[in-house]
Amino acid sequence: MWLALGVVLAVACVLLVARPFLREPSPNDDRLDAPEPQEEVRIARAEERDRALAALKELEFDHRTWKISDEDYRAQVGPMRRRAAEALRALDPKPIQAEKIHAGR
Description:
The model has no long low-confidence stretch (mean pLDDT 86). The protein is elongated and about 90 Å long. 2% of the residues are buried. The protein contains four helices and no strands. The chain is mostly helical.
């Protein structure tokens, strides 16, 4: 009798603990809202920044592993750095401090 009571109690405990995992979740609303137009612009700028920095990183890796020559690296690194800098400036809403200092002179 005690054995049967112990088994019933163990099964009840297992079912009680496992119940949240056995239920199918039902979200209230899992739709994402469309981003605002200014948020879409910020996302596009962030993606451009990520692409520019990834291309620069890949170029530097290729140069370090001798996949491209020094001449090719020098020819490509300048435009890529400018592109990355422009993407970073476009993403930052604040004016750069250096520009303020030079404008004040």
